[in-house]
Amino acid sequence: PNPQGHFRHPLSPRWTLLLSVGIALLWLPLSHATNFNCHKTCICASNIVSCSKMNLSEVPLGIPPYTVVLDLSYNDLKRLKSEWTSVRLPNLHNLLASHNSMTFLSSEAFIYVKQLRYLDLSSNNLQQLDEFIFEPLVNLEVLLLYNNKITTIDRAAFITMINLQKLYLSQNQMSRIPLELVREKSRLEKLSLLDMSSNRIAVLPIDELTLLPAYIRNGLYFHNNPLHCSCELYTLLAHWYIRKLNSAVDFKEDQTCVLPGPQKKEVPVFELSSDYMNCSTFKEEDQEAFLEQMLFLACDTKHRNMFKSWTLPGNVAVIAESNQTAKVLRDGTLQISPVKSDDSGTYTCFATNEAFNETIYIVLKVHNFTMDRSGDTLNTAYTTLVGCLASVVLILMYLYLTPCRCFCCPNKGKGRGEDSIHSSMLSVTPTHEDPALKAEINRHVAFTDSKDSQGQNGKFNPNGDEEEEDEEDQDAEAGSLMKGKRKKSVAESISSVFSDTPMVV
């Protein structure tokens, strides 16, 4: 006790301070007590930690939680385990792990780095990507997987990466394009670049690729693949080239295919229109419409989120809330309702944003009939044909099935065994009274013009006599008029086609 009778504490204030510091150190996490040293193991520059080219076989423990960029490239990492970091790195946005020897990714490798936006796993030895392997990376925007040995990708490997914009899968060993990433109902909405070049793709799903929006086709790369040559492939790329899509323009010389045959010759796709396969030269097709329908014209731009305006044929601007039949919808699509015949022509879409300008032309052809009456032309032709056939049948019936023809009318037109001379012959009473002639023949009268004394059907004999050969000529030429035995002409019977007087035969 001191002079005042109080007891002194056995530890001095200095020892009390040291004891407090020691107890606090015991409560620190073991990972913070590792040998991580920014001056020896890695290089630290503010919130950037670079461990590149340090011959590391494991990720060093104790990465500071404030790290934004972590560079682990050009080392000898074999696996990316779930415990490569035992603490959360909430600020880590960029993880670079290229040029290592990784063959394995743990399904829990990214649970502590959910804020990643850029992940580089290129130039490793990865062979497959399992289901939900990138599930925690909902904020990732860029994923680099090129120059690996990937052969298969599970269809659900990227399903949760709703913010992914660029995916690089070139220089692998894949045989298909992961269409589940770009197809209509399963599409990653923000994906604008998918690099599938330099793989082992032989056949493309051309029909599905044709239906993709232009902003996806613009960033869909599949050059340097052993594609089978076909005119469909040529048409696809020719269309993309005319639209100036980057995937066709930037790598035009690298767009190759393999000709059919044992030699497997590799040729440029854009030369298939020449001697190789004689593919038809590509030409943009006009869009067709029908009267009174509701039509939508899409402004299929190469970039997203662009302001779009339209002009009608004749360079007439589409104005909102006007009495025009055309209006621009919220997504930039032009709606025309109802379609009229004078809506045919060229429509122009102007797309702009802060960095790009694009102009798209659409040629519209309007048919002069409605969609539900498209068969009117065929029906009209069919009706006309039936009408013609009916007319022919009626004419034939009139000619051959009339109730009474001339042969059924007694004592008119001709006698028994004679041909009829219908409208050009008139039956008259004879001017002479020869009973023999009267009994044998019926007399007919024909009126002809007289030009000279000699006709084509006989000779005029003023004496009333005719040579025997004249009678034979008359029989041959007038056979259609009389089939019975001819009598020699008398003076009163004159045969001439040039006589104004009635000719009696």
UniProtKB/TrEMBL annotation:
The residue ranges crossing the membrane are 381-401
- Point to the regions of Acidic residues compositional bias: 464-476
Under the cellular component aspect of Gene Ontology, which terms does the record hold? membrane
Its GO biological process annotations read: brain development; cell adhesion
Q: Give residue ranges for domain Ig-like.
A: 268-361
Source organism, top-level taxon = Eukaryota
Q: Which InterPro entries match?
A: AMIGO, Ig-like_dom, Ig-like_dom_sf, Ig-like_fold, Ig_sub, Leu-rich_rpt, Leu-rich_rpt_typical-subtyp, LRR_dom_sf
Q: Which family does it belong to?
A: Belongs to the immunoglobulin superfamily. AMIGO family.
- Name of protein: Adhesion molecule with Ig-like domain 1
Q: In which organism is this protein found?
A: Neogobius melanostomus
> What broad taxonomic lineage does this protein's source fall under?
Eukaryota, Metazoa, Chordata, Craniata, Vertebrata
